[in-house]
């Protein structure tokens, strides 16, 4: 409480500017709930500063999480694109090989199996992309319950 004296002088200045002292009623002024002394005033200020600090830390943490999520989703997208590119190259190579006439009857069955496997992988990649897009859309939505809680705490702190 090294700043206690400065808070006392602030409380005295506050009282000398025509504002009634805490606990003293004047006919023209309604009684407001104000701290009764400088120590309580300082404690109130300290609590509000601590709450602001916590809110700022929470905000920074949320921003960092958003940034990490974005980086992760970009990495996943890049991996999926690389897989698709490799699949297309394999398909193109198989198509070129089959068009060159170098495919025998036994290898044709293997190409069909490869084609089926690639089709399944493409379907999985599409599903992953759709899930990623849904997650991205959900991240942009505002949680009204959370907003309501924030406003409630703000109003309680400023009364």
Automatic annotation (TrEMBL):
Region (Disordered): 1-48, 63-159
Biased composition, class Basic and acidic residues, residue ranges: 63-95, 113-138
Pfam families per UniProt: BRD4_CDT (PF17105)
Domain Bromodomain protein 4 C-terminal: 117-158
Biased composition (Polar residues): 1-19, 26-39
InterPro entries for the chain: BRD4_CDT
Name under which the protein is recorded: Bromodomain protein 4 C-terminal domain-containing protein
Species this protein is from: Ciona intestinalis
């Amino acid at each position: 409480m090294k700043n206690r004296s400065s808070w006392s002088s602030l409380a005295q200045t506050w009282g000398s500017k025509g504002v009634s002292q805490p606990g003293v009623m004047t006919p023209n002024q309604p009684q407001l709930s104000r701290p009764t002394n400088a120590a309580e005033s300082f404690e109130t200020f300290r609590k509000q500063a601590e709450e602001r600090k916590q809110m700022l830390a929470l905000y920074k943490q949320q921003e960092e999480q958003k940034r990490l999520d974005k980086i992760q989703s970009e990495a996943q997208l890049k991996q999926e694109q690389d897989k698709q590119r490799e699949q297309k190259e394999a398909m193109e190579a198989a198509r070129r090989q089959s068009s060159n006439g170098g495919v025998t009857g036994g290898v044709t069955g293997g190409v069909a199996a490869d084609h089926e496997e690639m089709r399944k992988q493409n379907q999985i990649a599409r599903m992953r992309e759709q899930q990623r897009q849904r997650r991205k859309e959900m991240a942009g939505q505002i949680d009204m319950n959370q907003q309501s809680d924030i406003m409630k705490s703000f109003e309680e702190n400023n009364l």
